[in-house]
Amino acid sequence: MPPVFAAPGADACPVHVIASDTFDSWLSGQPQRVQAWATAHGFTGACGQALAVPGADGAVEMALAGYGSAAKRARRRFVLAEAAQKLPAGQYRIASGLPQADAAAEALGWLLTGYRFGRYKDGKDTGAVLAAPDGVDAAAVESLAAAECLTRDLINTPASDMGPVELQAAAEALAEEFGAEVSAILGEDLLAQNFPLIHTVGRASDRAPRLIEMRWGSSGPRLTLVGKGVCFDTGGLNLKPGSSMALMKKDMGGAANVLGLARMIMAAGLELQLRVLIPAVENSVSGPAFRPGDVLVSRKGLTVEVNNTDAEGRLVLADALALAAEEAPDLLISMATLTGAARVAVGPDLSPFYTDRDADAAALAASAARTADPVWRLPFHEPYEAMIEPDIADLDNAPSGGFAGSITAALFLRRFAGDTRYMHFDIYGWTPAAAPGRPKGGALQGARALFAALPGMLEL
């Protein structure tokens, strides 16, 4: 179950959020015993510090949470989550010191300290439970936490229990919760209905490839989300080494992220027409596997020379994007764990994105700062178009040379989005080392920033 806020109660322990530059003035106004306790324990208001202060009877009377300086906070995400992890079990409420502008994001971070992936092993529950801070929309923040937990659970589930069938079941469960509709095109029907690239990538697996579609909403702008659903990626005949295959259960992270974003949208009741498309496959090795050197014909009619079967994500996305563009949505967004080049460029913590519209980029950057969901714009660099054009086909799925791999992949995908207003996210979908509110494992990236920006981008 996703974490929720504690019911407000008079017995909740007050938490004073104290910045390092205000600590001395705050402390001078406290009783001598509080001053002595804080001094003895070295509390200074530094980021992440936490201190339970006992009353005269020995029970916890108040808690102090360090908020550091503005410069230090800029280098962290979810500052209060770090403090929450250090406090003793109990119910807490914010009593003072938390800037209203930060309250929703910090409350979300505190909630997310309660996430546990417990499908295979019981985990220790967090003991410090927070009541929603004053002025914070508790239901809205809990909805964001639920979306994040959904995405994390899907990515954390190993491929043995999260194949194309199970990914479809997850979409169906989400649809049932919010009154959406789900359909799917499976196996050989993909060829009959002209999704040849999705079929080609998934045909070597005994777990049938499919295109999952979810629709919700009957009025307002049309928004289509496309998520890469490669439930496991061996690399195909260009087989990955073992070290590179270890995390390939997360190669459906784009699908998990668009389902998380869809959950936010539906829970908020945004007045738009939502369509979610997930090409769900397993890139396996067997007799029918597609080969390096094959030339494939896409749904759009563009031919693609396969120079690496491990560059399969852009192939399945291509057919789904072509389908999406046929309906001419007002905004088309793809999310995918697509390239290692993106990780080399910006590391695991930033979500690189592409758009031709400066206004959309600015709106997303602003919302990312508000929601503690960092993103970074990379360019659709037109001169690199020649890099994805081989001699014998319209497109190359894996240009040689290794340069600008994320950009060339984005340019490849843009060919299938056509003239539609299009944004692409090349996410990692994984937190490689535990951080406050963000345990090691599956991660939702870019989706909260998108959710916050959508009303402005679509003029809702």
Number of helices: 16
User: What is the CATH superfamily classification of the largest domain?
Assistant: Zn peptidases
The CATH C-level class name of the largest domain: Alpha Beta
Number of domains: 2
Tell me the Rg in angstroms: 24 Å
Which parts are unreliable, with pLDDT below 50 for 5 consecutive residues or more?
Answer: none
- Terminal Cα span: 31 Å
Shape: elongated
Keywords: Aminopeptidase, Hydrolase, Manganese, Protease
Protein name: Leucyl aminopeptidase family protein
Organism: Leisingera aquaemixtae
Domain Cytosol aminopeptidase: 308-315
What does this structure look like?
- The protein has helices at residues 23-28, 32-40, 70-73, 79-84, 100-112, 138-156, 164-178, 189-192, 196-202, 242-245, 253-268, 313-326, 340-346, 358-371, 405-417, 447-457, and strands at residues 13-19, 50-54, 60-68, 90-96, 128-130, 181-186, 210-216, 222-227, 229-233, 273-283, 295-297, 303-305, 331-336, 351-355, 375-377, 395-396, 422-426, 430-431, 441-442.
- With 460 residues, the protein is an alpha/beta fold.
- The protein has 2 domains: 13-136, Leucine Aminopeptidase, subunit E, domain 1 (3-Layer(aba) Sandwich); 142-457, Aminopeptidase (3-Layer(aba) Sandwich).
- Strand 14 (351-355), helix 14 and strand 15 (375-377) form a beta-alpha-beta unit.
- The longest helix has 19 residues, at 138-156.
- The chain is elongated.
- Residues 308-315 form the Cytosol aminopeptidase domain.
